[in-house]
Amino acid sequence: MAGGRLLGREHDRARYAADLAQALGGLKGPLMKVAQLLSTIPEALPAEYAMELTKLQSQAPPMGPAFVRRRMAAELGPDWAARFSTFEQQAAASASLGQVHRARDHSGRLLACKLQYP
């Protein structure tokens, strides 16, 4: 990608932009925040890149179930699941710094469990 114009090679900007957004979305934290910020500055990036990075503002990919179990165990102990009557492994929402899971306590009250990324 870098130097492609100098070397006389063209690349599929849309594909590279999607790949970059996916990679930065998976990294989370400050790098994803920078990508989100860059997407708001029209002159900073080619249109294809800005369009893909804009998606990270509202469509951040969540971390998987293994992360959820590790994070919950680290915060609440190995028996963390016993504290809830239900806990949804699939994130209800995700962003650059964390994600939210729906749960219910034993009295039936609906809870939102926010897991911050390391």
Description:
Helix 1 runs antiparallel to helix 2. It contains four helices and four strands; from the N terminus they run ααααββββ. The mean pLDDT is 88. Strands 1, 2, 3 and 4 form a four-stranded antiparallel sheet that branches. It is elongated and about 65 Å long. Helices cover 38% and strands 15% of the residues. By secondary structure, the chain is α+β, with helices and mostly antiparallel strands. The chain folds into two domains: 45 residues, no CATH class; 52 residues, no CATH class.
In short:
This protein is an alpha+beta fold and 118 residues long. Helix content is 38%, strand content 15%.
Helix coverage percent: 25-40%
| Uncertain parts | none
- How many discrete structural domains? 2
Computed Rg = 19 Å
- Going by helix content, strand content and strand pairing, the class is alpha+beta
Overall mean pLDDT stands at: 88
> Which series of helices and strands comes N to C?
HHHHEEEE
Annotation, overall tally of beta strands: 4
Cα end-to-end separation: 30 Å
SS strand fraction: 15-25%
Question: Can you count the helices?
Answer: 4
Largest sheet: 4 strands, antiparallel
What is the 3D form?
A: elongated
Q: Tags for this entry?
A:
about 120 residues, four-stranded antiparallel sheet, 2 domains, alpha+beta
How would the blueprint of this fold be written?
Elements: H1 13-27, H2 29-38, H3 47-54, H4 65-76, E1 86-87, E2 93-94, E3 98-104, E4 110-116
Antiparallel strand pairs: 1-3, 2-3, 3-4
Helix pairs in contact: 1-2, 1-3
